[in-house]
Write a structure and sequence with these properties.
There is one protein chain. The chain is of the alpha+beta class. The termini are close together. 27% of the residues lie in helices and 30% in strands. α1 links the parallel β3 and β4. It comes from Salmonella enterica subsp. enterica serovar Newport str. CFSAN000835.
């Protein structure tokens, strides 16, 4: 995956990714931490701020 513009809280389990090729915004979520309340809260906040973004569950290595 090509790295575009990104926003990530330190070890949050969530990455806001702006894909430069498609101009789409994705919220990438650590598939092993998706049930944690802090991760769910951050995802909901990011969805509120970036309503047109899509979400995708990914492995931790993709987030790093």
């Amino acid at each position: 995956m090509t790295r575009g513009n990104q926003y990530q809280d330190e070890d949050s389990g969530v990455l806001l990714y702006h894909n430069p090729e498609t101009r789409e915004t994705e919220i990438l979520i650590d598939e092993h931490r998706r049930n944690q309340s802090a991760v769910q809260t951050l995802v909901m906040r990011l969805l509120g701020e970036h309503a047109r973004s899509s979400t995708r569950f990914v492995s931790r290595s993709v987030l790093q």
